[in-house]
Specification:
globular, single chain, 6-stranded antiparallel sheet, YagK/YfjJ C-terminal domain-containing protein, alpha+beta, YagK_YfjJ_C, 4 helices
């Protein structure tokens, strides 16, 4: 067992898999506790919903702008998530006004705070939703209300900025969306191993900072 040199409470994981699921071994070592929490968060979502819409997103801070003091702490990601969850709840309330049988969706998430070469923090996210409630993210430049616009509005709220100033700060990586079934039908691929492999990146040990009231990693509860 190898302890993290900057945080001896954390254990380093060097293997190419975790509990039977492959990880991005070239990005390792990983934090063992983070891999466990990532896996548990996905499992909880699949326990509640038979099908998931899972997607990756990145949140960046603007350069050359005076930002509120809370943006230098984990308060900013908490505010983003609170705002995003409120928008999902509002969407589902509106959906049930049109159709009383419309599906609900809890927001489950995993986030990692990393510090880049210029000492500027940024966040990597995994969002997990009920696929029967949300099937797609929508288009980046669409004027319609969609998942991307909700994230942009939530990040603007967290930063205390106008939404038009943060649109370039919410980044959706290539091939970001995974639709995962609890029970995989014959002839269809199991997307869970792909999802875990992709999001194991959030659990890597490097580029995370500890101390000064920061956490490098967080997940939804329950």
């Amino acid at each position: 067992m190898i302890r993290h040199p900057d945080n001896p409470n954390l254990r380093l994981h060097y293997d190419n898999s975790f509990e039977g699921l492959s990880v991005m071994v070239d990005k390792g070592p990983f934090i063992e506790q983070y891999l466990s929490r990532l896996k548990r968060t996905i499992e909880l979502a699949l326990d509640e919903y038979p099908r998931l819409l899972a997607f990756r997103a990145d949140l960046r801070l603007p350069a050359g702008v005076d930002l509120p003091v809370h943006t230098d702490s984990n308060v900013v990601i908490s505010r983003f998530l609170d705002s995003f969850k409120a928008k999902i709840k509002h969407n589902r309330l509106r959906a049930r006004e049109c159709n009383k049988y419309a599906h609900d969706s809890k927001v489950r998430y995993v986030w990692a705070r990393e510090v880049g070469q210029r000492e500027r923090p940024h966040y990597h996210l995994l969002i997990l939703l009920n696929l029967d409630a949300f099937y797609t993210l929508g288009k980046l430049d669409s004027t319609a209300d969609n998942m991307i616009s909700r994230m942009q509005e939530a990040w603007a709220s967290a930063l205390g900025m106008r939404v038009e100033l943060v649109k370039g700060l919410v980044h959706i990586p290539a091939n970001a969306v995974y639709r995962v079934d609890r029970k995989v039908k014959a002839g269809k691929p199991d997307r869970l191993p792909e999802l875990f492999y992709r999001t194991s990146y959030l659990c890597k040990a490097v580029t995370k900072s500890y101390g000064r009231g920061h956490w490098g990693f967080g997940t939804s509860r329950g």
